[in-house]
Design brief:
alpha/beta; Nucleotidyltransferase, domain 5; 17% strand
Length: 203
């Protein structure tokens, strides 16, 4: 059976750190991607909130109607889907091993419509990040990759178990030294997720 790699994702806004590892933990690729360009990065939380006057009076808020905010979110959704496809195509072309799975942070449930997500204060704070994670998930599934949803509070323990190591932090530190900077908490998170993806340690 051919060896397959796993991609771990640590997203922040419309950007994400992607770390790709072989099943044994060997590094194959590290990259930062941006899923959208020249568009607002948090249309639910920012423009959507302005539309329902959630931050009325704040110096950074501006006037926008709810239909305009919904149309903007739709545009960002489309751009994120396209950006995710392009990013994963570029990754697959670069990595020597075939990729079998991608690990993304688990997504809480949201109201079904854009308008409902904007109006719901809690949903509006999460919907942008979830939009980008789901775009990557759909792009991965279109490539035939398995999507693993990880809990950031458990993924390091799952990765350590998958590698059969008690010293995962030491492993991640050594991995970072071999790469050089930047190697921060989000890169370690992506690497742990990549281990889980590559080994199939989570469902």
């Amino acid at each position: 059976m051919p060896q397959v790699a796993g991609v771990g994702v640590a997203e922040h806004g419309n950007s994400a750190e992607l770390v790709t590892l072989a099943r044994g933990g060997e590094l194959l690729d590290r990259r930062r991607i941006d899923l959208t360009h020249d568009l607002p990065t948090h249309p639910y939380h920012h423009e959507g909130s302005w539309a329902v006057r959630r931050y009325a009076g704040s110096p950074w808020a501006r006037e926008i109607s709810l239909p305009e905010a919904i149309a903007l979110v739709e545009r960002v959704h489309v751009a994120a889907e396209e950006g995710a496809r392009e990013a994963l195509n570029a990754l697959a072309a670069r990595v020597a091993q075939p990729v079998g799975a991608i690990a993304l942070r688990v997504c809480p449930a949201l109201p079904p419509t854009i308008e409902e997500r904007i109006i719901d204060t809690r949903a509006a704070t999460m919907a942008d990040s979830i939009m980008y994670r789901q775009a990557l998930a759909r792009a991965a599934e279109a490539r035939g990759w398995r999507v693993v949803w990880y809990d950031r509070d458990q993924v390091f323990a799952e990765a350590a178990k998958a590698l059969g190591r008690d010293d995962l932090e030491a492993f991640l530190t050594t991995l970072g030294r071999s790469l050089g900077p930047p190697w921060q908490a989000r890169h370690k998170l992506a690497a742990a997720a990549a281990i889980v993806a590559a080994t199939g340690a989570a469902s």
